[in-house]
Amino acid sequence: MFRGFYTVGSGMIAQQRRTEMLSNNIANANTPGYKAEQSTIRAFPNMLMSRLDSMRVPTEKGLNFKNLSEVGELSTGVYMQETLPLFAQGQLRETEQKTDIALLDGPMEVNEETGVAGTVFFTLEGENGGQYYTRNGNFAVNAEGYLTNPSGLYVLDDAGNRIELTSDDIRVTDSGAIFAGETEVATLGIAYSDAPDTLSKQDNGLFTTIDGNALPTGGTYSMQQGYLEDSNVDAARSMTDMLTAYRAFEANQKVLQAYDRSMEKAVNEVGRVN
Q1: What's the chain's Rg over C-alpha atoms?
Q2: How many CA atoms lie within 13 A of 78 on its CB side?
Q3: Is 114 part of a structural domain of the chain?
Q4: Residues 69, 129: one domain?
Q5: Is 43:78 a contact under the CB 8 Å cutoff?
Q6: What global pTM score does this model have?
Q7: Three-state SS at 121
Q8: DSSP string spanning 52-86?
Q9: Are residue 199 and residue 242 in the same domain, yes or no?
Q10: Which end of the chain is less crowded, N or C, counting CB atoms within 10 A of the terminal residue's CB?
Q11: Do residues 185 and 109 lie in contact, with contact meaning Cβ atoms separated by under 8 Å?
Q12: Rounded Cα–Cα distance for residues 192 and 219 (Å)
């Protein structure tokens, strides 16, 4: 009976965490460059239940010996193993802002083991000389004349240096070269990850490598000035998935209430001493 409480409880916790993940996706449906999170729910290892029988041997001494007979498997609950971002390309939205830049994926190699395609990112200056990576190209020129992202982090060029501009009147080519008038000022630094599912997701649409090492350059891509890559969240599907998670949570809750009523009867009625 108590094992049932743990099984139902684990199901409720898994659905609650899935609901929180879906709520975060819906809240960021309009965030440029946001990558929707996906969850993987797994079951705990099943238990093999056996029954202990006593068999009598037809001898003069009436010997008994124990015998195990299998009853079947019993599930011990589920848990949300992990959340992984979906790195599919989001739709482009025109903004007409010259410092807004959308990064478009070209044909990428697919990892044969995981089936995940490589992805490219803008590079940002992180703490202690590290780097952040993002798909949000909503850039601006700060008061010091440097190109920054919405969080104020410096955008880096292909040499890992900050990009200094005299104004936001710039032209960006498909390859990422930045021109002020007819003069090439810098080239946007683009990092490539052949296993983006191994990156660590941070706040504000940022990613970092787990070991802290910088990603290499590479990949096939193009850029479009005056556009932003929208979030790849499917709001309609996320709402449907949230309702499904809520119904699953509700079903587990009703089972928990049924267990509670059974335990109440066992204590107050079955165990009553007359």
Answers
A1: 28
A2: 18
A3: yes
A4: no
A5: yes
A6: 0.78
A7: strand
A8: EEEEE--STT--EEEEEEEEEEE---EEEEEEEE-
A9: no
A10: C
A11: no
A12: 6
Q: Are 33 and 136 in contact (CB under 8 A)?
A: yes
pLDDT digits over 87-145, tens only?
Answer: 989 999 999 999 999 999 988 888 777 778 889 999 999 877 789 999 999 999 999 99
Verify that 109 and 195 share a domain, yes or no. yes
Same domain? 184 vs 121:
yes
Number of domain units in the chain: 2
Sorted by sequence, the CB contacts under 8 Å of residue 180 that are 6+ apart come out as 165, 166, 167, 169, 170, 171
* Structural domain range at position 63: 2-82+234-270
Q: Which of 75, 54, 76 is nearest to 66 (CA)?
A: 54
Residue whose entry in the numeric block shows the structure tokens 């390859």: 175
Asked if the structure places residue 87 within a domain, the reply is: no
Whether the pLDDT of residue 69 is over 80: the answer is no
Q: Name residue 65's beta-bridge partners.
A: 55
Whole-angstrom distance, CA of residue 133 vs CA of residue 149: 11
CB 233 within 8 A of CB 38: no
Beta bridge partners, 64, equal: 56
